[in-house]
Amino acid sequence: MPKGFTEQEKKIIKDNLIQKGTDFFGTYGLKKTNIEELTNAVSIAKGSFYSFYNSKEELFLDILKKTEKKLIKEIQQLLKNMKKNPKETFKDFIRFHFRTPKEHPIIQQIADKNTRDYLIRKLDNNPKLNQALQTYEYIPQFIKMWQKNGFIINKDPQILAGILKSLFTIGLDEETVYYIGKEKFPEIIENLIDIIADYMIISKSD
Question: Which pLDDT does position 49 carry in this prediction?
């Protein structure tokens, strides 16, 4: 670290880089955001950036990791009602995944094929990259837990997870949204959520 920065200053600068990085990556995307824009936004020299991160791609991964941790906590909070009302809680779980890319655009960035290919080219030797690319890979674990508790049908967790992941990715592509029907898209998704919940969730009367 540069000798001119105190420990407190280092923490403030890194926090600011994460905040500004979140804004820039979410607004302009990874490829169109450059380091000079980030350093200007946090009032440090361009060269000082490399005392915190080796590249903007590493900053991107750090932001993604922090965002995902936050989202997992939100999911865990949401799922506290699973035992009391499995079907409605499951629907809220699905709706959460539709809201997330709009509220946290960096999640939508990592789902974009061009961004993923770019990261692979830039960070092919980075051990954190593979984990970052495993979008929605926590879902089979949730399904196994729900099956164990008798909430979800006894089908292959990977297949059930694939159904959910297919649904989640529909809303990421504006072209697909327009093709399906943008005006009616929210209603279409709600109907799909109902269908999937009716299929997967075991009702108390079963």
Answer: 95
pLDDT number for residue 19: 95
For the chain of 206 residues, list the mean pLDDT of each consecutive stretch of 10: 75 95 92 94 94 92 89 91 94 93 85 81 74 75 94 96 90 85 93 97 75
Nearest to 56 by CA among 16, 9, 106, 21: 21
Task: Output the 3-class SS for 155-171.
Answer: CCHHHHHHHHHHHHHHC
Q: How far is CA 160 from CA 50, 107, 132, 145, 166, in A?
A: 43, 22, 22, 13, 10
Distance (Å, rounded) from C-alpha 134 to C-alpha 202? 28
Phi, psi of 167 (to 5 degrees): -65, -45
Number of Cβ within 10 Å of residue 123's Cβ equals 20
Strand partners, 152: 201
3-class SS at 201?
strand
DSSP state for residue 153 in the 8-state scheme: -
Between CA 72 and CA 69 the distance in angstroms is 5
